[in-house]
Amino acid sequence: MINLFVLGKKGLDALAGIHSELHAHINAIIIGKDSAVQNDYSSEIQTWAAQNQIRFYFRSEADDAVLKQAKLNVAIGWRWLISLEIPLIVFHDSILPKYRGFNPLVSALINGDAEIGVTALVGTDEFDQGDIVGQRIISINYPIKIEQAIDLISEQYALLLDEVLHQFINGELTKTPQDETQATFSLWRDAEDYRIDWQQDSALIKRTIDALGYPYQGASTLMDGVEVRILDAEIIPDVTIVNRCAGKVLFKHDDGYVIVCGSGLLKVKAFYNQQLELIQPHKFRIRFQ
Fold first, then answer.
1. Which of 102, 111, 155, 219 has the most other CB atoms within 10 Å of its CB?
2. Which residues contact 172 (CB under 8 A, 6 or more apart)?
3. How far apart, in whole angstroms, are the C-alpha atoms of residue 237 and residue 234?
4. How far is the CA of 10 from the CAs of 6, 7, 75, 79, 129, in angstroms?
């Protein structure tokens, strides 16, 4: 029997991709909640479990006696510690050993990686360092929004989970050690990491804006000392500016404001407040910080 610890759209899509003949091998589904995103899909996961007559618990309500009946724990999108008393397989949305740690998909998109992927690995005391039991890799093109990337990755989660469960049930699971010489790490992010650095190149800022959009709160900047969100931007060909000052508005067009970057220009057509309500600047001379 198998426990599935799931959170978010990747968790929901992974569950939905499991073949129905494997449902009988699921001991319980443990559902996580995340207030930092606009939709954590916890209610959709609950509905899926109920419709498929699979026992489920929210994280704070899990029955330890029931969970200990399983022979394997599987964590998908999970952000909390799980006891290693029962063998654990963790799904991580990077091509390990690259991007161990936190929000690896966001980091990959900001860095402009040509490939993204998901890895299933053995859970250990050291995060994301266990042996690899499965991996799926896909190519992407830019520009791409984080929501689109999550949709693509979620499809791979579903395929990989089905493969791993079949292999475990049939006693065919293989383990491959990671190459430590290739390991990189992705740090956790907080509110400060959503702030746009206008000194950067316009292409990098564009990727950052796209990577921090829905289901996240959106990249932020200060407009006249007030924090606003930017959910989309368009790269504009650069011009020669003799006194370049990143963050200042260069042009005001009918459809948006052209902002000077460290190199390059970005046009922003819409700004939002913290409640993601549309707001309208009332002047031309704006310095974004």
1. 219
2. 166
3. 10
4. 8, 7, 11, 13, 21
Question: What does R_g of the chain's alpha carbons equal in angstroms?
Answer: 22
Phi, psi of 168 (to 5 degrees): -65, -45
pTM for the model: 0.88
Count of Cβ atoms closer than 10 Å to residue 41 Cβ: 24
Using omega within 30 degrees of 0 as the cis cutoff, is the peptide bond preceding 143 cis? yes
CA 34, 40, 43, 48: dihedral to nearest 10 degrees?
-120
The values of phi and psi at residue 269, to 5°, are -95, -20
Q: Residue 13 burial by CB count (10 A; 0-12/13-18/19+): exposed, middle or buried?
A: buried
The per-residue pLDDT for range 214-243, each reduced to its tens digit, is 888 899 999 988 999 999 999 999 999 999
Residue with tokens 């990077």: 94
10 Å CB burial of residue 109 (0-12, 13-18, 19+) is buried
Tell me the torsion sign for CA atoms 107, 112, 116, 121.
negative
